[in-house]
Structure formats: C-alpha cells, structure tokens
Amino acid sequence: xxxxxxxxxxxxxxxxxxxxxxxxxxxxxxxxxxxxxxxxxxxxxxxxxxxxxxxxxxxxxxxxxxxxxxxxxxxxxxxxxxxxxxxxxxxxxxxxxxxxxxxxxxxxxxxxxxxxxxxxxxxxxxxxxxxxxxxxxxxxxxxxxxxxxxxxxxxxxxxxxxxxxxxxxxxxxxxxxxxxxxxxxxxxxxxxxxxxxxxxxxxxxxxxxxxxxxxxxxxxxxxxxxxxxxxxxxxxxxxxxxxxxx
Length: 246
Prior knowledge:
It is a single chain. It contains 9 helices and 7 strands. It is an alpha/beta fold. It has 2 domains: about 1-30; about 45-245, Rossmann fold (3-Layer(aba) Sandwich), CATH 3.40.50. Strands 3-2-1-4-5-7-6 form a 7-stranded mixed beta sheet, sandwiched between helices. Strand 4 (about 125-130), helix 5 and strand 5 (about 150-160) form a beta-alpha-beta unit. The longest helix is centred in the first third of the chain and has 12 residues, at about 55-65.
C-alpha cells in the first residue's frame, strides 16, 4: 500500500521535481558514492585475477565440484586437462580421459569437438567434468546430445558455464566465444535430453562478486561470507549436475 501511494505521488509531480526528490531520498545520496580503486575504465587484472590469486569464478566452480566429488569416479572425462579429475576424484577414478579440440596438447587422450564427435564411443564415461566450455561451442544442441550419448546409464555430467563474465579474447580469436548463460537457458538446453528430476541447477554470485570478477580481483580480496551470499539476479556462474537415466 505504501509503495502504491509513493508511486501515485511521484506520478503527480513534474519530472524535474521527481528527479530532485529521487536525489534527496536515494541512499547513498546520488553523487556521494565513492568508487575508489574501481573508478576506472580498464580492469585491475585482464586475466580474470589469475595474476592476483584464484579468480572469483574459480572459487564458485571449485566449491561446486567439491560438493559433487562423490560423482567423480570410475571412467572420468574432462576438458583441456585432468586437473579437477585428480583434485576431486583422487583414488575413486579408475580411468582419466582428456578431450581437447586441438592436437599436440600434453595429456590429451581424445581430439574432438563435442558438437561433432561421432568417434567418441557411446556409454563410455561414468562422469564428465565440463567446466567453462559450452560458451565456446556454437552448436549447443549437438554438443549436449553428445554429452548425453557418451555417458553411461547412471553417469553424471558436472557442468559450469559463465553468466556475468568478460569475454575470453584468446578463445574468441582461436575458435570462437559465443554465449553467456542463465540458469533458465541451461534448464531448457539440457532438459531436452535429461529428465528434469535428474538435473540440479544452481547459480552463484551477487552484485559485489560480479563487479569484483569483472574488475579481475582474486577471491581472497573478498570475504567468503560476501562471496557465498547468493543473489539470483546476479548469476556469475551457473552449475548443473545432470544424471543419465539408468
């Protein structure tokens, strides 16, 4: 009722008076916000904060993978390298494969593009760790179809995708950077192949962590309490755990 009366009152006054009223009632007052080190047009780090410590998106990604570590077992596939397979799977992993689109990368066992990967055998993997990759693939439907196909029945894919993020210029120039995501589109994309009851989607972030990430601050520069506060309107990272039906 109060907000309705306030709206009616604002509508009854001139635009100039309305602007003045907003300036007087806003908190902090308009013009008094102090940006400090963030009042700049270039980021503090252009490398997401790797040169300052652990990037904020990695804080969220690794928190997600740690919570899902029980799924990282058996025959595990990871993109690029097997860092997270070893870190969170440990002795539960019986076979570790690494997929990359480019040849001549150390540790890679499978060369291929998820959107065109008929050479990868069906029902092969117990777990697929797929972090920060789908934004680089234009044909998302074909990629997700492949993900579903190569998982064993009961197998799990652990996905992270960027929401609020800067573009990776290296990826853009070498093979493409096409998408930013929301939890809603992740649900739609994967729901075509995975049953809704077998998917769990979360988002991580808030206005502070989103801003800090864009500026390239490291996770240690923001308290864990502030990083862990989740505001669904600021999706820095979206995560998905999806299990193939048995």
